[in-house]
Design brief:
Blueprint: H1 4-12, H2 14-17, E1 23-27, H3 32-44, E2 49-54, H4 57-70, E3 75-80, H5 86-99, E4 105-108, H6 116-139, E5 146-150, H7 172-193, E6 198-202, H8 211-216, H9 218-228, H10 235-247, E7 284-287, H11 297-305, H12 308-324
Helix pairs in contact: 1-10, 3-4, 3-10, 5-6, 6-7, 7-12
Protein name: Short-chain dehydrogenases/reductase
GO molecular function: oxidoreductase activity
InterPro entries: NAD(P)-bd_dom_sf, SDR_fam, Sec_Metab_Biosynth_Oxidored
């Protein structure tokens, strides 16, 4: 576990270790984990450019004002969109491509408690579409770039090759397991194909965000929040830890263009983390909220032997073509 003091020390070094052109895209950041991570970044980088993507225009406007107050030198933009629809993801990415020549951080926290179609789309396909569309800008980063998908790293399970879209068999448990596993397998594949970019799939732990009340209801959510307090994180701490995962040299790409530029230099006691394939600094990371590796080596090894990382990505591209008429 990376101590919170080490996290804060690393984050505080961002003002001197990152250049003024740092560009970040936060998808699903109008509340909770994404919002607080964006706020931490805005306070830690001298002149960041941050694009916030979300459905709630009122929340988006509020967050923009708070970001501007935290850092008047930054550039902040809100893009309103329902990104459960892949064509909307394409429209958002087109806007970002018009504004930016490179993206240094893509941070995704989209989720929903609504039905099957939106659930699997937001937890997997929408996330992958953002990555797919923004890969050219991520490759152009000089930081180098990092992609962080916050969902359920380390909670992978058994999945079937003929049910990746969950149309053959579905249950709440299967939906959660498939989303977790497919995110992890895609992260591995993408890191192997884009070795100058770091990819991380993170389990956020229990964070005291409005999602508890949204999911469980006001009364039950309040009770759950109270009972979980001893082993949960505040939104502020979650933001700090996610910023560390998003910027620290502890999670370098497999083949950095410049080995001297792989993130904020490691502080005392902080080490480079092993990737999901077991290689230290291997580019694809399955992480607990505290930044530690939580890879199920046996399970991921079995999937790797059966070429599931590639199969999941091939399925993803086929789904894009089916839904949009083109990959």
């Amino acid at each position: 576990m990376v101590d919170l003091t080490q996290v804060r020390s690393s984050n505080s070094a961002l003002k001197t270790s990152q250049n003024d052109a740092f560009v970040a895209v936060f998808v699903g950041a109008t509340s909770g984990i994404g919002e607080y991570t964006a706020k931490q970044l805005a306070s830690s980088v001298q002149k960041p450019t941050i694009h916030i993507v979300g459905r709630n225009a009122e929340a988006g406007s509020r967050i923009l004002e708070e970001l501007k107050t935290a850092n008047p030198q930054g550039t902040f933009n809100f893009i309103q969109s329902d990104v459960s629809l892949l064509r909307n993801v394409d429209e958002v990415c087109a806007v970002i491509k018009q504004k930016e020549q490179a993206v240094d951080l893509l941070f995704i926290t989209t989720d929903t408690t609504e039905g099957l179609e939106n659930n699997h789309s937001l937890r997997f396909y929408s996330r992958m579409r953002f990555i797919y569309n923004l890969l050219p800008l991520l490759r152009a980063s000089h930081t180098p770039a990092r992609v962080v998908t916050v969902l359920a790293g380390g909670q992978e399970g058994k999945i079937s090759e003929d049910n990746l879209d969950l149309q053959k068999a579905w249950s709440f448990g299967a939906a959660a397991s498939y989303a977790a596993t497919m995110n992890s397998l895609a992260v591995e594949y993408l890191a192997s194909e884009n070795p100058t970019i770091s990819f991380a799939h993170v389990f956020p732990g229990i964070v005291r965000t409005p999602l508890m009340k949204t999911t469980l209801g006001s009364v039950a959510g309040s009770i759950a929040g109270f009972l979980s307090r001893p082993f949960s994180s505040s939104p502020e701490e979650s933001g700090e830890r996610n910023l560390f995962i998003s910027t620290s040299a502890a999670y370098p790409p497999a083949e950095p263009v410049d080995p001297a530029k792989v993130g904020v230099p490691l502080g005392d006691g902080v080490k480079t983390v092993a990737a999901s394939n077991g290689k230290v600094g291997g580019g694809a990371y399955l992480l607990h909220y505290d930044g530690t590796d939580v890879t199920n080596k046996t399970l991921m090894g079995e999937y790797r032997q059966k070429e599931f990382p590639r199969k999941v990505w091939d399925h993803t591209l086929a789904t894009f073509k089916k839904a949009l008429g083109t990959a």
